[in-house]
Every structure is written in C-alpha cells, then in structure tokens.
C-alpha cells in the first residue's frame, strides 16, 4: 500500500518542484478549491482538436434552401491518447532517458486517476474541470469519455502497461448553487423531452436541473454512450434527481 501511495504522489506531482522539460500534464480541479497537476508519463504522439459552432435551420416555404442562423456557443473537443509503462523495461520510452526501475509497479496508479475524471465530485455536483497543457496548447473542459486498454502484465497478473484514450469537451461550468434552484429545476418525477437540432444534453440539464454538469443523469437514463452523437428528433427521458 505504501508503494502505491508513493506512486500516486509522483503521478499527481505532489511535492514536486517541476522542471524545464516540456512535459504534457493535466491540471485537475479539486473539490475544496485549487487544483492538482497530473504529470503525463510520456508526451502524446499526437492529439486532435475539433471545434464546431451552433446553428439552427428554418425551412422557408417555396424556397429550396433553409435559413441558417448562428446560435453561438462554439463547442470544442480534444481527443487524446496517453501511454503509461510501470514495468522495468520502459519500452515506450524510446530515445528519452528514463531512470532504471528495479521493481515493476501497478500501472493503475496512473489509470485510476484518469478514470475518476468522469465521476461526479460530491462538493462540485459534477465531474471536475480538467486542463490539458503541453507547450503552447491549453484546452480546458470536462472529460466525457475514458477508455483504458491494458497491454502488458506481470506473471502474477499485475498490469504494467496501458493505453488510455480520453475525450475532453470545452465547457464553462460553475459549482451548483443550491440556493438558486427552484422546484422546476429539481423535478421529483421524470419528464420526456424532444431533442431538437439546436439543443443538447447540456442545454436540457441546465434548463431542467439548473446545472449543465448533470447531463450524465440524462445520458445514463437513455443509455447514451456518446453525448455528441445523439440524433435530433428523438425523445429523451429526463429522470428525477435523487
């Protein structure tokens, strides 16, 4: 247990003074205020940023093309793959000088921190805000998807190498102010709402709950895996808050 605790401290950069090397990192919001830095073991080979605006279409009678109106609220997503190796070989290190490890460690000391980024934090009432930083790139938002693939193990089954794919969506969130909530925003029974072209799970959560961060409540109630790939025109169940 002591070994895992020390590994977690190293992962989160606790007590470290930093360095001049350009290492990628994630800055994670803490429940009690402030943030903590998650140091990526290896810089990513590549990442993908997608940005799109919000538009609505209005059909005109007798015309071939509809009127398209810009609704604002540009949404960006960051797709990122990170690699972690806690074996004694460091095969993923390439030509990067790395210290020699005498004993392998559980790679979950890294992976578990990332998997927690999609879970609701009690005091925040939502997942934490996360900022990906590397060189001149800085993208902030909430993690909407995490996928971990374990690719190497010790003879006793301990995982020592993993590839983690994550998707971060830019979004301005604030902690939920319970004093501002009205009975309408905290429904005691489920509702059924039609998803239109100019709305999203976050819009519905903000309108119904007063907290856009509760989009996952709606996603779980409708078995939605990817909130960015929900077709308009379907009817969604908005569950009562527990």
Provide structural commentary.
By secondary structure, the protein is of the alpha+beta class. Helix content is 14%, strand content 31%. It has 4 helices and 11 strands, in the order H-E-E-E-E-E-E-H-E-E-E-E-H-H-E. The strands form 3 sheets. Strands 2-1-7-8-9-6-3 form a 7-stranded antiparallel beta sheet. A two-stranded antiparallel ribbon has the order 4-5. Strands 10-11 form a two-stranded antiparallel ribbon. The longest helix has 10 residues, at 2-11.
Tags for this model:
single chain; alpha+beta; two-stranded antiparallel ribbon
Report Rg. Answer: 21 Å
- Biggest sheet architecture: 7 strands, antiparallel
The percent of residues in helical segments reads 10-25%
Strand order of the largest sheet: 2-1-7-8-9-6-3
Structural class: alpha+beta
**Overall 3D form:** elongated
Output the number of helix runs. Answer: 4
Taking pLDDT < 50 over at least 5 consecutive residues as the criterion, the unreliable ranges are 1-10, 14-20, 92-97, 172-186
Tell me how many strands there are. 11
- Could you tell me how far the N terminus lies from the C terminus, measured between alpha carbons in angstroms? 35 Å
Entry summary:
The protein is built from 4 helices and 11 strands, in the order αββββββαββββααβ. By secondary structure, it is of the alpha+beta class.
Helices, strands, pairings?
Layout lengths: L1 H10 L13 E5 L5 E5 L7 E6 L2 E4 L8 E4 L4 E11 L22 H8 L14 E5 L2 E17 L5 E11 L21 E4 L6 H9 L5 H7 L13 E4 L4
Antiparallel strand pairs: 1-2, 1-7, 3-6, 4-5, 6-9, 7-8, 8-9, 10-11
